[in-house]
Amino acid sequence: MLSKRMPLPQAVAAKSLPHKLILGVPVAVTTMSEAVDTIGRWIAGRESRYVCASDVHSITRAQETASHMEALNAADMVVPDGMPVVWASRLYGAAKAQRVCGPDLMLAVCERSLTTGWTHYFYGGAEGVAEALAEKLRTRYPGLKVVGTECPPFRPLTDGETQAALQRINDAAPDIVWIGLGCPKQEAWMLKHRPDLPGKTLVGVGAAFDFHTDRVKRAPVWMQNSGLEWAHRLASEPRRLWRRYLLQAPRFVFASLREWISGSART
To answer: What are the DSSP E strand ranges found in the chain?
Structure first.
């Protein structure tokens, strides 16, 4: 139930990017091009940053789980992954808000990398998926520099395994580490390990690993742009996603409307 908002960490007040607080989550008011530019500035400055692509499921979960709210508030950029989040941003006054979903952000950054030379590491997905993703993207963007891939087991890693994985990433020295562990695991991972990966930008993109390797079929573009992608995903994976779209989505709509009507939304 979306009732009591989690405490708002100090990290939100310090953000320099324009954003709207939607149910306590600082959602960036940006475009795809601006988001890529922002990542580029971080890379140029060798800054340690992380990006969350948050949809209704992610923001709803933050209302119920303090650790997830903390991870989103500590992120350097939270981009609106779904159209309902964009609509909420516009309702809260961000008339020019645009969707910046994880899978499309990955493609936009890869395309920009062909001129900037940014290097990539893919961490996540089921066995073999990260490697398949790297191969797909190299084919789509000839010359793309991939310096490593890794598919960690779904079970919790030991401290030794985690440290070994972090060492492999640091040794590969990527500019960008794409994290495909799913929500909320990837957000928690980035919050915890950002200090362990200096000079790198971490981007949590969840289903992008499966979308771009054709393990999961994306909705047609017209459904994505009209806010109906949820219907396509629900039809594709009803057992796994019914709770997310039939319960959490309506809760998000009513809670954000209530916040807007009450005037308690903050910038």
So the answer is: 19-22, 25-28, 49-54, 77-80, 119-124, 145-150, 176-180, 201-204
